[in-house]
Amino acid sequence: MNRLHPRIRLLWVARAVVFALVVGGVATAATLFAPVSIPSYVPVAVGGVFLVVGVAVALLRYRAWGYEVRDDSLYLQRGVLTKVNTVVPFVRVQHVDSTRGPLERLVGLASTVVYTAGSRGADVSIPGLTPEGAEDLQDRLKRLAIASEGDDAV
Amino acid sequence: MTRLSPLSVPYRAVQRSASIVFALAFFAFTGGTAFGGFLGGLGSVALVGVVVVAIAGYELAYFRRFEYELTPDTLDIRSGVFSRRNREIPYRRIQNVDISRNVAQRLVGIAAVNLETAGGGETEGSLRFVSYEEARRIQSEVARLKRGGTEGDAAEPEQELLFELTPRELAIVGALSFDLRLPGLVFVFGSTAFPIVASYVDVPVPAGSVAAAGVGVVALGLLVALVSWAAGFASAVVNYYGFRLTRVGDELQYERGLLQRYNGSIPLDKLQTLTVEDNPLKRRFGYATLLVETAGYAPSSDGSNGSGGGGRGSEAAIPLATRDRVLGLVADLEGVEEPTFEGPPTRIRRRYAVRYSLVLGAATLALYGANRFLPQEIPWFVPLALVPVAVVAGALQWQHRGYALAENHFVTRNGFWKREMRFVPYYRVQTVIERRTVFQRRWRVSTVTADTAGSISLVGGDATAVDIEVDDAAELRETLNDRLREALAARREARQQSRQAALGIRAAEPGRDPDESDSGSTPDVETDVSETPEFVEEAEPAVGGDDEDAEEVGDGDEAEADDPFIWGESVESEPGPEPESESERDDGAENDDDTESDSDDGDEDDDADETGDAEDEPEESSDERGAI
């Protein structure tokens, strides 16, 4: 089972922090403009709760994430509250992307996205790879998908 | 190159101008102080006339510039007045050919043809309009050309009437249908209209008469039920009047409809899933509904396919027939019987009962809260009386859940009020998803979904085995993956053999796959193999090795199901087949970028080396299993 790159935690934690700040800001604004007087610690507490929960979830998510390139399929496990294990047979792979979002580039990471023709979970994304790792994985999945020769994908 | 029917010009012109002219006329004659006053009455008429002429001209141009052709391999459509589009649709990719005619179109003798391929949010080929005979010809020609029938003498394969809806059955379909949309409308209208009515009619509302309110609610409920039943009856009759399902060669064809007639064709090799649906009433009288799903229908194109279906994909299936007949048809089409289902563990009954009781508890709480703020006393404890019902409901839900692994199909069953039994051929499975919510983990159960490329799934859900034991789920997940591969291999082999037989090359011998792929009889396969030999080796003998893998993963899941940090621990402790590369990979992930990608490569090589020896053995076992 492969783990994601540890640096992805940075990204996820940062995201949680930003979200908590936004929530805290909104709560502060609501306090300022609310007709009734709300104690000033309330928005701080709200933001704090979001911060703690968000960071905890981000760290747990990292611990929960794992993927494996098996002989005939890609296997993923992830999820903090709801655990999700996905098997993507190579025969079913339609195409493979490797993407780098602006934030991902900032921390020097990349993701690989695998597309199938399925109706749900039609795209499966593996975040937290190094750029080379993502390209390698993309290339490898591509070749495995070709080798497994899905004649009738639909 | 063929043109559309000339009649389509006036029809389209009238259809298009009707709405525009109406809007314009409305605008010019009624509101027209700024506009109509400026132009005057005569000017408005002139404007409308100009618009009509412009529309007619556009439609004429559309007709003149729309051409289609049935070439040997593709259906070509060239269209567009201002921006031109040439589209070629390979016959093999066409999922459905649908013909629809509404009343006006039937009077004029024209029909709309829709050609659906998989993917995309819209209908890929649409002919508006051709004569009905031409539409039927296109339908049968597409089917013939798809079979590769170039010689044309194979025309008219035998037709077999599979099912015809008798008037009596139509009446039952209607009687068992409820359409909740109309009452919804009535409700919205009524709720806005009521205060107005009430202001005119000064109804003396007796204070504190809870009973009267209760009677009112019950009466309203009955009314809603009656209206929805009547609406359901009407829409069922309109939709399914004269329903016929025929099998023409390797296609299913259906026709239905009272006012608007639909003809559709469904190639059997494009079937994704079959769904047998019933409800308590239908079960009581031994009836069921069959739904057939292909990947063709755009999710939102309910207007042209199944009116009332709300994007349910094809309603080409059987609206209602005796259960035996439906299951017989399923057996005919897919060769699968109704299996004996394996249900969720018995403790899950309690889970459902608890779940429903919690809902009741919440309702009670809400009522209690309302009671404290309302001037009058309301019976807030009433929901508690329903707890026994919750227990029964939980048991019923549990009873109707289940899954089965049939010979070639994954079968699931869910639901009490609307019970759906889904048959998914293994070779149609796209991905397998296993998920456990927090609550499911408490009960040590898990849900496995076999995702297909269908379209009903978008709203109705895929074939899902809900709340099965965690280790069963892990096993099921891997089994589905294995069977998918085996089924595909078997199909591939069968196809290869038939292709070789057709080409007159030496008969294929089972178990000699590697040699054959060198023989050059199947160019497309061969090129792939020669380019990436190591991956073929890697992919093929997966049967043996993979099973072991799967069980280990499954065991790990089960043993530490409660531990949220399972993956961190199990990485080290897992006795994988390649311990070295395992640890190597792990290190790579922990430390830094370069080693990670390196270790990936190393892992790849290891796989190829190791599996190279064991190649022959699992290969054969896979053949055997695939052939079953």
TrEMBL record, chain A:
Transmembrane region(s): 12-34, 40-60
Residues spanning the signal sequence: none
Domain of life: Archaea
Sorted UniProt keywords: Membrane, Transmembrane, Transmembrane helix
InterPro entries cross-referenced by the UniProt entry: YdbS-like_PH (IPR005182)
A Pfam family annotated for this UniProt entry: bPH_2
YdbS-like PH domain mapped to chain residues: 62-140
PANTHER family according to UniProt: TRANSMEMBRANE PROTEIN-RELATED, UPF0699 TRANSMEMBRANE PROTEIN YDBS
Designated name of the protein: YdbS-like PH domain-containing protein
Record organism: Haloferax prahovense (strain DSM 18310 / JCM 13924 / TL6)
UniProtKB/TrEMBL annotation, chain B:
Domain of life: Archaea
Domain YdbS-like PH residue range list: 64-140, 240-298, 398-480
Stretches with biased composition (Acidic residues): 525-563, 571-622
TM segment ranges: 20-39, 45-63, 182-201, 213-238, 356-374, 380-398
Pfam families cross-referenced by the UniProt entry: bPH_2
Keyword terms of this UniProt record: Membrane, Transmembrane, Transmembrane helix
Classification via InterPro entries: YdbS-like_PH
Keyword Transmembrane recorded: yes
Annotated stretches, region: Disordered: 491-628
PANTHER family referenced in this protein's UniProt entry, alphabetically: TRANSMEMBRANE PROTEIN-RELATED, UPF0699 TRANSMEMBRANE PROTEIN YDBS
UniProt-recorded name of the protein: YdbS-like PH domain-containing protein
Record organism: Haloferax gibbonsii (strain ATCC 33959 / DSM 4427 / JCM 8863 / NBRC 102184 / NCIMB 2188 / Ma 2.38)
